[in-house]
Amino acid sequence: MDGIRQQRRGNTRQRIQDVALELFAEQGYEKTSLREIAERLEVTKAALYYHFKTKEEILVSIFTDLTKPIEELIEWGKDQPHTLETKHEIVRRYGQALTDAAPLFRFMQENQATVRELQIGDSFKHRMRGLRDIIIDPDAPLADQVRCVSAIFTLHAGTFFLQDVEGDPEEKRAAVLEVAIDLVTQAHQGSRP
Fold it and tell me: Cβ distance 145 to 153 under 8 Å?
C-alpha cells in the first residue's frame, strides 16, 4: 500500500511541476499564483500546500529534477581525461540534457531577472562553472578555452534562438550539435603541439 501511495504522490508532484512550469511560461513567474496552479490542477490550495508551500519551492524542485543529468555529467566529467573524445561526449550529453529540460531552460531564458533573484540562479551559475571546468583544458591557450565554452553556449543558442526558425526540430538539434562539436575539435587541434 505504501508503494502505491508513494507512486501516486510522485505523480501528483510531477503534475504540479508540469502545470506550474506551463503557467510560469505562459504568464510569467511573478504573475502566477499558487491559487492559479491549484485551479489548473483542479485541486484545492490545501492539496497543493501538501506538496509545496511556495512557488519558489515548486520552481526549485523543477530545477533540481530537470538539471540532475547536468550534475551527473559534471561528476562524470571530473574523472575523465581532457581528451577530444571526452569533450565530444560532454557536448553530446549536455545537448541531450538541454533538450530534455527545454521548457525549464526556455523559462529561465525568458525570466532572467526573476531567476537571478531566486535560489536557482546561483545553482545554475554553479552548474555552468562546473561544466566549464570539465570541458576546458586549463593549460590550453585562452582562445581554445573560449572555443570550448562557446560550444556549450552554442547548444544554449540552438535551444532558444532556433525554435522559431523553420525546419525539423531534430535536424536543427543535429546542426547545433555539429557546430558545437566542431568548436571543441578546433580547440583540441589548436592546443596540440
Answer: no
